[in-house]
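**User:**
If convenient, please work through this fold.
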Amino acid sequence: MEASALTSSAVTSVAKVVRVASGSAVVLPLVVAMAAVPMVLSAMGFTAAGIASSSIAAKMMSAAAIANGGGVASGSLVATLQSLGATGLSGLTKFILGSIGSAIAAVIARFY
């Protein structure tokens, strides 16, 4: 029940952002992609409660632990994704990614 409420809330948030950004066809995919990051991480198994059993995240963690002799290295891909899954993207990270994405989209839009 908690996961469906989270998903419903996230979809509602994305829908609100899409309505606001719908005036720009270039910005819309960037906004949706940024809003989708927490949902994708959760679907992979990187949750706030930890790595979900029998998920892609669990398989990644197992492979990383085997490769590192029994533990997941700090700063590894698995550790970073788990951190993002547990805390989400910070406001500064969203701002930076949004700025970079908008700049790239502006350059691409010049050619179309």
Summary: The beta strands are 46-47, 50-51. The two ends are 45 Å apart (CA to CA). Residues 1-7, 17-23 have pLDDT under 50 and may be disordered.
